[in-house]
């Protein structure tokens, strides 16, 4: 692991670069399409008290006219895992120390015609090291032709990124995503899927890093295209009711099943950052 | 356990009588104070398919002008516990068979001045048998003088019921409630408390049954009084924002921690009935 400090630095820097790009692109859509001057409000947090001894992160939250709620978090946390988690994460069987850096984003647009999206990539270091992440799309009306077409565009762009990295990886990561974002009590998926990958270490760090960078870059470029294609589609009252329902199920998934939420709550994470993924409205 | 079939029948009948009384009282408040003709819509469900071989229940849901969402469920379910639950419930160490009957109610009023409430009582039979239940109040503004006074009225009525049953029981059941309805990630209670009891079997079934009946009767009489005292209190926009926040935390508690929700999801319960407790709106 002679290069590990270099890897950490490069990964951490990248997540911040990507965060800045995403925030700037989202703000620019707000400004150009609705003359909204809403910008991301950033807020730093630390895992312990007010110092940086075990890391922390920076939240960025925008509540706008196009994007009713968009949260983009970056964090770099480190220390020793709590007893509940030791051994459950690869490379911590003999040594509880960990280092994790990543970006996590959820966007809930105001218009039910624009799909909600989630993207997260991370680099984890224990006695092993690997990348993980994914991106998935949640149109409000999962069955409409327009939604299915937007999802196809999203999937095809991910397929290109995956297949460029490794032949056959797309099918594997797509299935992983469908299996993960599933609500057993509803017998339905959270949205229309995307990709999910974890424990990625091919032995060529630069290549794996490039893949993770491409997932992020591709995500924001494709989402901008999706917003452009759907922002002018008119919505009915029924679409807004359906949005409330879809958002409720999004909440059910995140609170009942999501690993990231559970990990955050168990590691004494920042509540505001953890719950940034939850929708701006829901109804049961 | 020679009288057990008689006990089951009496308990099950009582929960239905109480359900009918509560629904009728809630409908009458709707009619008299807002000229609303909303009534409870009832819906039967069965645990397995469409037959009654392992029991089921009846939901009753009203979406009204005073009570934005009021759900009153009764159910009687029986059979063998799933592997995950065997041994975790008293009297199932050697025998997985169980029988459970109960009533469960959650009311989310439209006005932020009227507190939300929850009440649940149940009779469980395994190789042992016992009562359980409780009632708790969730005013929107937990710190306002009006809320504190309404909560006092609620607590005092419960105290009377408990102390009539057994000296000292109120403090015990009150603490149990405060400990149970707690959100560790927020470091706050769900509402302003009430009582919570479980595994209640004093050796005198009739007495324990009377106590459980009194909890139910007292609940609805006291809540009617609370509604009368708060229904005319004017609300500001800030109160409605606070209501959304309180409801979001109610959702967090129910999805992250509530035993009843987890039990329901693990025993393949009816999703509509389980989630009837969730609020009609929430925002993050």
Structure, explained:
The structure is a homodimer of 284-residue chains. With 284 residues, chain A is α+β, with helices and mostly antiparallel strands. The first copy, chain A, has helices at residues 4-34, 145-165, 169-180, 205-230, 237-256, 259-266, 271-274; strands at 41-46, 55-62, 69-80, 97-108, 116-125, 129-138, 182-183, 188-189, 194-200. The first copy, chain A, contains seven helices and nine strands, in the order H-E-E-E-E-E-E-H-H-E-E-E-H-H-H-H. In chain A, the strands form two sheets. Chain A has a seven-stranded antiparallel beta sheet with strand order 1-2-3-4-5-6-9. The first copy, chain A, has a two-stranded antiparallel ribbon with strand order 7-8. Chains A and B meet through helix 5 of A and helix 5 of B.
Please give a handful of descriptors for the protein shown.
alpha+beta, seven-stranded antiparallel β-sheet, 284 residues, homodimer, two-stranded antiparallel sheet
Alpha-beta classification of chain A: alpha+beta
In the CATH hierarchy, the third-tier topology of chain A is known as oxygen-dependent coproporphyrinogen oxidase
Strand order of the largest sheet of chain A: 1-2-3-4-5-6-9
CATH architecture of chain A: 3-Layer(aba) Sandwich
Query: What would CATH call the homologous superfamily of chain A?
Result: Coproporphyrinogen III oxidase, aerobic
């Amino acid at each position: 692991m002679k290069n590990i400090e270099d890897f950490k630095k490069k990964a951490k820097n990248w997540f911040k670069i990507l965060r800045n790009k995403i925030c700037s692109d989202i703000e620019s859509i707000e400004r150009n399409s609705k003359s909204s001057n809403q910008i991301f409000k950033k807020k730093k947090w630390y895992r312990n008290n007010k110092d940086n001894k075990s890391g922390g992160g920076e939240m960025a939250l925008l509540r706008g006219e196009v994007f009713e709620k968009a949260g983009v978090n970056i964090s770099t946390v480190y220390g020793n895992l709590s007893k509940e988690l030791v051994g459950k994460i690869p490379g911590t069987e003999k040594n509880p120390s960990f280092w994790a850096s990543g970006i996590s984003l959820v966007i809930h647009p105001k218009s039910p015609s624009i799909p909600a999206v989630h993207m997260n990539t991370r680099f984890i270091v224990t006695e092993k090291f690997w990348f993980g992440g994914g991106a998935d799309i949640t149109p409000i009306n999962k069955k409409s032709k327009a939604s299915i077409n937007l999802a196809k565009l999203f999937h095809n762009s991910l397929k290109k990124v995956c297949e460029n990295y490794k032949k056959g990886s797309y099918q594997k990561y797509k299935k992983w995503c469908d299996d993960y974002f599933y609500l057993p009590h509803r017998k339905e998926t959270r949205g229309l899927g995307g990709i999910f990958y974890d424990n990625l270490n091919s032995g060529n760090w630069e290549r794996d890093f490039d893949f993770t960078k491409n997932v992020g870059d591709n995500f924001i470029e494709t989402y901008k295209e999706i917003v452009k294609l759907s922002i002018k589609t008119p919505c009915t009252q029924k679409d807004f009711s359906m949005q409330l329902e879809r958002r409720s199920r999004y909440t059910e998934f995140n609170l009942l099943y999501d690993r990231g939420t559970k990990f955050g709550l168990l590691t004494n994470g920042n509540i505001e950052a953890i719950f940034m993924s939850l929708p701006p409205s829901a109804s049961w």
